[in-house]
Design goal:
By secondary structure, this protein is α+β, with helices and mostly antiparallel strands. Helix content is 46%, strand content 14%. The strands form two sheets. The protein has a four-stranded mixed β-sheet. A three-stranded antiparallel β-sheet has the order 3-2-7, with no helix packed on it.
Length: 372
């Protein structure tokens, strides 16, 4: 059997299977490139089942690219809240504004123009062009690299950029003429539903009969991937500053800077300490918090012996380990007028965009205070 015959077998078998079993996902109900774009950005590092309600809510609020481009950033972040990796939302809006200004609100059809948009890498470029416009462009993500590694028994490290480039060339050569949209989605679907990372369901695979990895007994060894570096722990003390008098039932929060990690989101005031030793001594945490907040002109008294909460926030490269100390403000009205700080109670809590870790901590706090 020739290589051409083998590729035809792979493509035809995959498409027949996909058209029978494809999942009914909301972004598959149209070829709208904007909806496809939003879904692909949301699906980065996030499971399909998690994304569905977020996608529906997001496109209900921003039904067209122009709606997204013209929206306040705070509103966009609020509708992204819970998905994490907030730079994805900011880049998506920045790119939508570029499309609105440069291309009249129409997602371009040129590979060079799409790939130049902020936050749009090779995979997303291929997904938009193939699914929306049926252009024969590959869309190679982790699922696709796993399928190709196993089917063709490729033992190159998929963490290497050169391997990804090679996979993109291979994937493109497999696309049946005029069927790029279905083929790329079928390849992704196979990786997500059958050719899974740890327990591939080889008997259910529509092309398993000729899978070289299975035939050589290597389906569970492939793909080859070097392990990423372990996320570095970062130790932090946070202050839960309760109001009194006119601010009773409220908590003092602050907005993060306009750029950087979790930019412009709201949080409990917190500080980083140099090591775990400083993180296990509440009295030291209280002193450090008081000094750091005083530099912002926010005068508080932290309860050095009262750890009222503990949580962690996991990023790709680091993990925030947070302990929370109860505290009270010494000058409440003055604090309330400080730029970047605000008193927030349960009634306005949902008006702000929170990283998950602070949403969880404050939700628990407000629920507890309501029961008192």
């Amino acid at each position: 059997m020739t290589a051409t015959d083998d590729k035809r077998y792979f493509g035809e078998g995959l498409l027949r299977w996909y058209r029978k079993v494809r999942r009914d996902l909301p972004w598959r109900r149209s070829r709208d490139p904007y909806h496809i774009w939003v879904s692909e950005i949301m699906l980065q590092q996030t499971r399909v089942d998690t994304v569905i309600p977020y996608f529906n809510r997001f496109v209900d609020r921003f039904p067209t690219l122009r709606h997204l481009a013209e929206a306040p950033e705070d509103d966009v972040l609020k509708h992204w809240e819970g998905l994490g990796y907030y730079s994805r939302a900011r880049n998506l809006q920045a790119a939508a504004r570029e499309v609105a200004e440069r291309y009249g609100g129409e997602v371009p059809r040129s590979k060079a123009e799409v790939s130049a948009l902020k936050g749009v890498g090779p995979y997303t470029t291929g997904a938009i062009l193939s699914i929306a416009y049926d252009q024969p462009e590959p869309a190679v993500d982790g699922n696709v690299m796993r399928v190709l590694s196993r089917y063709f028994c490729l033992e190159d490290d998929i963490a290497r950029p050169a391997t990804r480039i090679g996979m993109e060339g291979l994937a493109q050569s497999l696309i049946p003429e005029g069927q790029a949209a279905d083929f790329n989605q079928a390849l992704m679907e196979l990786g997500a539903m059958v050719c899974t990372p740890k327990s591939p369901s080889c008997p259910e695979c529509p092309v398993g009969e000729r899978c070289e990895g299975r035939l050589q007994g290597k389906e569970r060894e492939l793909p080859v991937k070097t392990k990423a570096k372990k996320a570095r722990p970062v130790f932090r003390w946070a202050a839960l500053i309760e109001g009194s008098g006119a601010f009773a039932g409220k908590v003092l929060v602050r907005q993060r800077p306009e750029t950087g990690l979790l930019a412009q989101m709201w949080e409990l005031p917190h500080i980083e300490v140099p090591d775990e030793d400083a993180w296990i001594r509440p009295e030291e945490g209280a002193a450090l918090l008081e000094a750091a907040l005083a530099e912002d002109g926010v005068l508080v008294k932290a309860a050095s012996g009262e750890v009222v909460g503990e949580a962690q926030h996991i990023f790709t490269h680091l993990v925030w380990k947070i302990k929370v100390l109860g505290a009270s403000a010494l000058e409440e009205q003055y604090v309330a007028d400080r730029t970047g700080y605000r008193w927030v109670g349960p009634e306005e809590f949902e008006n702000y965009a929170w990283p998950n870790v602070f949403r969880k901590l404050l939700t628990e706090y407000f629920l507890l205070t309501l029961r008192r």
